[in-house]
Design a protein that fits this description.
Layout lengths: L6 H10 L1 E4 L5 H16 L6 E2 L9 E5 L6 H9 L2 H9 L4 E11 L7 E4 L7 E2 L3 E7 L9 E4 L41 E3 L7 E4 L5 E3 L6 E9 L4 E2 L13 H4 L13 E3 L5
Antiparallel strand pairs: 1-10, 2-3, 3-4, 4-12, 4-14, 5-11, 6-13, 7-10, 7-12, 8-9, 8-11
Helix pairs in contact: 2-3
């Protein structure tokens, strides 16, 4: 049965910028995706990177933009209910793929994902966007993502590299750093959920979020999708991920009408 998205879900996503969706994927879809993630780990692309220190007893590894080569990723993006769910939560007539992002933390990883927003790392402007964080392993509360409710409606914060805290994107001082949430926890409403394979968290690309290390293997596939109001915003720096040559093909301020960003709703359901 397709996942039911209620008016309350739509309202909560708009208000909080993050929403738990139980059983978004079937056991067969999860199994297929797990195999796709393992294939990506075994054969990483040139865009892959290790996001943990050499001294870390675990391993935090990520890779980007592999949907064209990975058939399991394609099936989740183009054949699951994810595009229809995205259209409803974004209140968008059309949904495009922006990119995919695979993340794995091996058992014992200490590296914490610091508080950050995703959109400042990207080359897009607009508010109709959504990310799906899809684990294929159980994720208890102590290793899950945390979100600051409503933070997508506030400022853009300075993006930094996770390990060295460098401002490689917007220049130092051009945006403020994220607030110190641990020092003032009473000021924030933190959302977090325990997840089982098949569950997903949907969140806005401007929602502040962070994550702990992991005491067990945690493999995650993330899909970034964009809606009607998203426009191309070329940067003077290398974005994460980078789309080489895109600025020569797609002017600033236009929709992301390009083969790298296919329409997945409603065209894929026709």
């Amino acid at each position: 049965m397709p996942v039911s998205i209620s008016e309350t879900d739509i309202e909560n996503y708009a208000k909080d910028g993050a929403l738990l969706i139980k059983n978004l994927f079937t056991p067969d879809e999860v199994s297929d995706l797990r195999e796709g993630i393992d294939a990506n780990i075994s054969h990483p692309s040139s865009r892959a990177k290790v996001a943990s220190n050499e001294s870390d007893p675990g391993w935090f590894f990520e890779d980007f933009c592999n949907w064209q080569e990975n058939s399991a990723f394609q099936r989740i993006i183009f054949e699951s209910d994810i595009s229809e769910v995205a259209a409803k939560l974004m209140c968008s007539e059309q949904v495009r793929l922006f990119h995919d992002h695979m993340l794995v933390k091996k058992t014992g990883t200490k590296q914490r994902t610091p508080w950050h927003q995703d959109q400042p790392y990207y080359n897009i402007e607009g508010m109709q966007n959504i990310s799906f964080w899809i684990p294929v392993d159980p994720v208890p509360l102590e290793w899950t993502l945390e979100f600051i409710a409503g933070s997508h409606q506030e400022n853009w914060y300075l993006p930094r590299t996770f390990l060295k805290k460098e401002a490689k994107w917007f220049p130092e001082g051009s945006l403020s750093d994220p607030p110190n949430i641990e020092e003032n926890p009473e000021k924030y409403r933190v959302l977090s959920w325990e997840l089982e394979p098949g569950d997903a968290v949907a969140f806005h690309m401007l929602t502040l979020h962070a994550g702990a290390g992991s005491g067990a293997l945690r493999r995650v596939f993330s899909v970034r999708l964009i809606g009607d109001d998203i426009r191309h915003a070329p940067r003077d720096w290398e974005t994460s991920p980078e789309f080489p040559g895109l600025s020569d093909q797609l002017p600033a301020g236009v929709p992301m009408d390009h083969k790298l960003f296919p329409v997945i709703w409603p065209a894929s359901k026709a």
